Amino acid sequence: MRAPFQILAIPYKTKPELQYCVFYRNSSGQCQFIAGGGENNESPTNAAVREIKEETSIEIKHIIKLNSIAYIPVNVIPKQYRKQWNKNAFVIPEYTFGFECNSKINISHEHFKFEWLKYSDAIKKLTWDSNKTALFELNCLLQSKIYNEL
Questions:
Q1: Which domain holds residue 70?
Q2: pTM
Q3: Average confidence (pLDDT) over 14-33
Q4: How do 2-13 and 91-100 pair as beta strands?
Q5: CA separation for the pair 22, 125 (Å, rounded)
Q6: DSSP labels for 59-128?
Q7: Local confidence band at 98 (pLDDT 50, 70, 90 cut-offs)
Q8: What's the CATH code of the domain at 38?
Q9: Mean pLDDT of the residues in the chain
Q10: Has residue 148 got a pLDDT over 80?
Q11: What is the rounded distance in angstroms from the CA atom of residue 39 to the CA atom of residue 97?
C-alpha cells in the first residue's frame, strides 16, 4: 500500500566540480529529481533509499536528510494508490534528501534521460518549486562544507 507521503532525492557529485543530476520523466517530460512514495510502514528515509535504487540502480550507504519539506496535492498521485488514504487528505508531505553519487546511473523506465548540471543550470530546468527549494538547501549545505574544508 502506498503511504501518504512523497520523497525527493537529489544526486550530486563533487568532482571534477559540484554538479546535480536531473531526470526527465517519461510520462510528462518534466525535469525533476528522484521522487516517489513510501510503501506500507516504510520511513521516508527508507523510501528514499529504495526509490534511489529503483530509479538509478544505485545502492547508497549514506543519505543526507534535508530540512526542506513541501506539501504536494494528492491529485498528482494516481487514484489507485490512494484508495486507503483519509478522504480529507488533500495534500501530503514531501521529504527531501541528498546523496553523493559516485556510481554509474542506469535509469529506470520512469525516465527517458538524465543529465549532470551545475547548480545555476539545474535550478533553471527544474519543473517543481519543491525541487528548486531542496536544491537550494543542498547547494548551500555543500558549498558551506566545501568552503570549510579549504
A1: 2-149
A2: 0.93
A3: 94
A4: parallel
A5: 8
A6: --S--EEEEEEEEEEGGGS-GGGSTTS-TT--EEEEEEEEEE--S-----TTEEEEEEE-HHHHHHH---
A7: very high
A8: 3.90.79.10
A9: 93
A10: no
A11: 17
